[in-house]
Design goal:
mainly beta; outer membrane lipoprotein receptor (LolB), chain A; 14-stranded mixed β-sheet; 3 helices; 7% helix
């Protein structure tokens, strides 16, 4: 993809503290109409939300100017270390979020928005995303998450179903698959909050359209485009086994996060808008972060939020579907 134009563990208590966004429960306002998001989240599409006044504006396409490379190309190791300084002290993160889904249906561009969501990370592996709406009586309608070994999705609206599986079986032929393009385990990488492996070999190229350096570790299935001045991530691609991009995240609106005890230049810097596109389709997921907290306390980040057994006791699903099982 280089040079191509961008398209736009278990908590001890049986009674965990209230989960963010879940205070009103999964109930739905009387007379609400289900809206099925296809193909995003099509398996358990539950965003019964009222659209905001307008969806977020698409990112302005980059000009087709060819930007020449610098006279001296830095090494992969040098750029990886420069990139990693921006997330050196970032271990946890809590944020409010607006999640927008765009897709094309019957020749028309469609979109839905969950304006009362939360993104919670205990890096590098533990992820929780509470998808919800501020509309009366809606609350949290979907909960995605992962730990070191497993991933899960609670559909709290369509008959309260839990889907879960092990990371090692994702994409394995003959097994059930969660019909969402972004697995919870991949979210930290797509948000640009994980370090690039600087201790193993990798290669660096120049992207003349983005005007940035392209870093690709030899043993990783991702590549990162960083800017020329600060090595901040501009784009993250997840790759298939043959090295082709399957997901592409555009990272914009960077923000420095204040952390006590650090000098200003040591504060983490992350993107607060991430546009994730499925390569080869018109489908897009947009995350807009606000109120980002890099040092969340126990009321915002709690082990219960990343523990599948505790979440099952909290949400009490009526049906449990294990995705590792062979397709019948």
């Amino acid at each position: 993809m280089t040079g191509n134009a961008p398209e736009p563990r278990r908590a001890c208590s049986d009674s965990p503290p209230p989960l963010p966004g879940a205070g009103e429960g999964p109930g739905v306002r009387e007379g609400s109409q289900k809206r099925f998001l296809t193909p995003f989240l099509c398996l358990v599409a539950a965003l019964v939300v009222l659209p905001a006044c307008r969806p977020p504006a698409p990112l302005t396409p980059l000009p087709w100017d060819v930007i020449p490379p610098p006279a001296r190309m830095p090494t992969y190791e040098e750029l990886a270390h420069r990139h990693n300084r921006h997330v050196e002290h970032l271990e946890r993160l809590w944020s409010r979020a607006t999640i927008t889904v765009r897709w094309r249906e019957n020749g028309r561009q469609r979109w839905e928005q969950a304006d009362s969501s939360n993104v919670i990370l205990d890096l590098p592996h533990r992820v929780a995303v509470a998808i919800g709406s501020s509309a009366p009586g809606v609350g949290t309608i979907m909960w995605l998450g992962s730990d070191e070994d497993r991933y899960w999705l609670f559909d709290l609206y369509n008959d309260k179903t839990l889907y879960w599986g092990h990371h090692e079986t994702v994409g394995m032929p003959g097994t059930k698959q969660l019909a969402i393009p972004v697995h919870p385990r991949d979210l930290p990488r797509l948000l640009g909050v994980l370090k690039i492996d600087a201790d193993t070999p990798g290669r660096v190229n120049w992207d003349p359209v983005w005007g940035g350096y392209v870093l690709e570790p030899w043993h990783g299935r991702y590549r990162v485009v960083v800017d020329r001045e600060r090595a901040l991530p501009l784009r993250v691609d997840l790759l298939d086994a043959e090295g082709w991009s399957v997901l592409q995240a555009l990272l914009t609106s960077p923000r420095s996060l204040d952390m006590a005890g650090l000098e200003p230049w040591e504060h983490p810097t992350i993107a607060t808008r991430v546009d994730i596109a499925v390569i080869g389709s018109d489908d897009e997921l947009i995350l807009q972060l606000r109120g980002v907290d890099p040092t969340p306390g126990p009321r915002r980040l709690n082990p219960a939020q990343f523990d599948l057994e505790t979440l099952m006791r909290q949400f009490r699903p009526d049906e449990v579907i294990q995705l590792d099982e062979p397709v019948q």
